[in-house]
Design goal:
The complex is a heterodimer. Helix content of chain A is 71%, strand content 0%. Chain A is an all-alpha fold. In chain A, helix 3 packs across helix 4. Chain A is elongated. Chain B is mainly α. Chain B has ten helices and no strands. In chain B, helix 4 crosses helix 5 and helix 8 packs antiparallel against helix 9. The chains are: A mainly alpha, B mainly alpha. Chains A and B meet through helix 2, helix 4 and helix 5 of A and helix 2, helix 3, helix 4, helix 7 and helix 8 of B.
Chain lengths: 84, 216
């Protein structure tokens, strides 16, 4: 089986997650050896997946955690005083 | 080749279910411990929907309080994290609906990427953008805006899976869809991201490869 670029593009996501049949992976790797476009497509997709997983993306505002726990504490205290 | 790590500092399900049982039995303070590993998840989920810091923080707080007051309704068959995500998603959607900005995904968005006519951003080479580039606000904004602009259907999957590191099963549970749908949507979300972001991010690649010249 020889696979073309479009075929590779259909499997990018499962390829970078390592969730792909070994046979297909081999075919894709063979394709990547000589196709710089598909290599760059996979590398850039993987790069973006790594970047969005970084904690600096959607960084929580300063003091967020403290305010969250204060609000929770309020609710717990209210509840306790009502049941008294 | 590096594999993608989706490690997350969460309690084990057993430890978590134990914590929940103790909270329900009266040790209410322990809710602080239960929610702590998921603070960021709550925030990123609602922020990706609402795109406003103050609003997202308020929504995250509301979702946490809802989880607290409804904890007795949590059934142990799913993970606490996925239950929590469902609450956060509902809170986000409620706010969008109130603001009149809840866009149901159009047929266009659904059918756009179904076929074989998809073409990624074609680049002859890719030089890795190191994580250090995220020190720059413009790079973070680029990524956040790209995520925010995805159709909700794809965005929710990408945020849970790639931003928050839930696995396929957990993502499927949280969104009440099948694992197969998670994979398909994730694939489409990632390729939309690549198509839009790769050309934009290219300029942030390190200029030199660490040595001068390159002749050997």
């Amino acid at each position: 089986m020889r696979i073309d670029c479009k075929h590779v593009w259909e499997h990018i996501s499962s390829y970078i997650d390592g969730e792909i049949e070994p046979e297909l992976r081999k075919e894709i790797d063979r394709h990547l050896d000589h196709c710089s476009i598909c290599s760059a497509t996979i590398d850039s997709t993987r790069n973006i997946v790594v970047l969005v997983a970084d904690d600096r993306v959607f960084e929580i505002p300063a003091g967020y955690s403290q305010r969250l726990h204060e609000r929770i504490a309020e609710v717990i205290n209210d509840e306790a005083s009502k049941s008294r | 080749m590096t594999s993608i790590s989706t490690e997350r500092s969460a309690n084990s399900k057993v430890a978590e279910d134990d914590l929940i049982a103790r909270i329900l039995a009266g040790e209410r303070e322990l809710f602080h411990e239960l929610i702590r590993p998921y603070e960021k998840l709550l925030y990123s989920m609602v922020f990706s929907m609402l795109r406003n810091e103050a609003e997202a923080e308020d929504a995250a707080q509301t979702a946490a309080i809802q989880a607290y007051t409804n904890l007795a309704r949590y059934r142990g068959e799913s993970r606490f994290s996925t239950w929590l995500v469902t609450i956060a998603l509902n809170e986000g959607r409620t706010r969008l609906r109130k603001a009149g900005t809840l866009r149901e995904d159009s047929i266009d968005a659904l059918s756009e990427e179904t076929g074989s006519d998809y073409t990624p951003a074609l680049l002859a080479d890719w030089r890795e953008i190191p994580s250090a580039a995220l020190e720059r606000k413009e790079v973070r904004s680029l990524l956040e805006n790209a995520i925010a602009q995805l159709p909700a259907l794809y965005r929710d999957v990408l945020v849970l899976r790639d931003v928050d590191g839930l696995d396929i099963e957990e993502t499927a549970h949280a969104l009440s869809i099948t694992p197969a749908s998670v994979k398909v949507r994730l694939h489409r979300a990632r390729r939309m991201m690549q198509k839009y972001l790769a050309p934009e991010l290219k300029q942030y690649a390190p200029k030199s490869k660490g040595w001068l010249g390159g002749w050997s």
